[in-house]
User: Fold this.
Amino acid sequence: MNSTARSTWSGWDPYPLFVQGGSGSRLTDVDGNTYIDYLLGLGPMILGHRPPEVTRAVVSMIEDRGTVFALPTEDESRLVAKLIAAVPSLEQVRLCNTGTEAVLYATRLARAFTGRSKIIRFEGMYHGFSDGLYWSKHPDLDEAGPDRAPVAVAQGPGLPRGVGDNLIILPWNDAGLLAEVLEREGHDIAALITEPVMCNTGCILPEPGYLEAVRELTARHGVVFILDEVITGFRLGLGGAQGLFGLKPDLSVFAKGMGGGFPIAAMGGRRDIMALVADGTVSMAGTYAANGIAVAAANATLDILARQGTFESLFERSDRLREGLERLLSDARIPSSVVGLGPVFQVWFSEHPIRNYRDAARHASHTVFRRWWEGMMERGILFHPGAFENLFVSCAHSDDDIDQTLAIAREVVAELKG
Ligand code: PMP
Assistant:
């Protein structure tokens, strides 16, 4: 590996590889090693690397029409129509560039619509890097110890004083506590934001009835329910998690998978709320919002995802991998669970069930996770080195990739046991 690159790099710490390029389910590093990639650029490469149809759509956009933005285009209208057709709760949509921006717009809109200022968010969820919702350590849970991760909330170094003042940060999967807080303070709360499946604390599923309770309670108190589908959107189905769960949030945000590897995001929902954008009350800016390249990529990506059988085979392969890993670990009696839904999941090394970030911070072993990650990585299986992150499966992963991954996992599990 190039030593200048190594010494000037300030990126992710534990990564010992510099990427040369990717194709399909594989990444190759500058030393010529190839990996089966379950990191997928943190999720966007839902079709795998360099999906030919997306590449062709982008190249033809550039060659035939140029990188149009700042004025509406037919391509943009087509994309918005596809989003509205795919996701049940979307009545109107605006495009932007990143998940962070989409979240910022949604919370700004909710505050303008309700005239209230507070936002409820949940411990351990990540909704982007804007100061208003960002995470850092939770001072009350530091006792978690060196083998554990700190609980994430929006307070701490790097954030200006007062940034967290308008935030109420609650543990997830606790409808009783939410009901109490809304009863007491609902009149001050503009919005509640949550992921439908917790994907930024490893992977944690909503307990039965939890999201329905969130929907019902927020509606009762006039709080705008924002669903952050940046990871789950166009990954758990064309209609996102909300399509799968039959959930109807007031506003939703999407990014990552919708661009097939190109930066694009969307925010949308109820027409009466979105009307504040259309009439200029709330501004959504961004020079590159809805730029032609990203729109072309998203149009091509959604067309591919909409094809018959796409999600069925994605889920089939993902389930086979998840269940296979679960079996290997349980046969070896390693305290663990493999939690997730379809193409997004995480391996927890813990003997306790994990239902929210507090449980994860207290019980999940980072040491065992790290040994697992290193064993897999050394043998060419790439995923995020954090015990609080996810494995992503793409449409490009083949049955053969899954078989190879399980065969390698068998060796690594034997090492963990020994
Ligand atoms: N919301 C969620 C749930 C995310 O996972 C992320 C990114 N990991 C974001 C928002 C922010 O998206 P972006 O990185 O595109 O700004």
Confidence is low (pLDDT under 50) at residues 142-152. The chain has 13 helices and 16 strands. The first strand starts at residue 19 and ends at 23. The pocket of 4'-deoxy-4'-aminopyridoxal-5'-phosphate is lined by residues 42, 98-100, 103, 126-128, 195, 200, 228, 230-231, 255 (CB under 6 Å).
